[in-house]
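Tokens as discussed.
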């Protein structure tokens, strides 16, 4: 058996019993037998599009705002006391009673992106500090920007 859930001899499905072998994806999706060529953008164009990302720009802004040591929760979320200020920084409205990062989905998404893209790093004391990619975004080389 090979890795992954799509192997044709997966133990969970048998041919002829409604498993993956019985699905004709091309026909089901109405796709032609031969697909037309696709032009992929070059590195410079992809990097330019990435630099234009409002979500990444917001993640960078939050990372800069954290400075050197915003307190984080055990789950690496922004501390409740800092949620209103972070939301205000990004122009995100807060619902009445919203105190946790999960109460503000748009801010939560930005925060998670900043962590995942290493714009924010967690230090040994559990505080948010500028991450290793913060200096690369958005002014690094095209390859650096695409890596972020």
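Sequence:
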């Amino acid at each position: 058996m090979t890795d992954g859930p799509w192997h044709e001899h997966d133990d969970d499905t048998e041919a002829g019993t409604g498993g993956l072998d019985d699905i004709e994806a091309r026909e089901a999706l109405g796709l032609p037998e031969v697909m037309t060529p696709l032009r992929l953008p070059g590195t410079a164009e992809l990097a330019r599009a990435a630099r234009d990302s409002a979500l990444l720009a917001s993640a960078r802004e939050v990372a800069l705002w954290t400075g050197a040591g915003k307190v984080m929760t055990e789950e690496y979320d922004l501390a409740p006391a800092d949620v209103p200020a972070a939301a205000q920084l990004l122009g995100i409205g807060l619902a009445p009673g919203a105190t946790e990062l999960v109460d503000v989905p748009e801010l939560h998404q930005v925060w998670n992106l900043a962590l995942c893209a290493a714009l924010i790093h967690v230090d040994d004391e559990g505080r948010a500090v500028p991450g290793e990619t913060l200096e690369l975004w958005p002014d690094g080389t095209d390859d650096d920007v695409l890596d972020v």
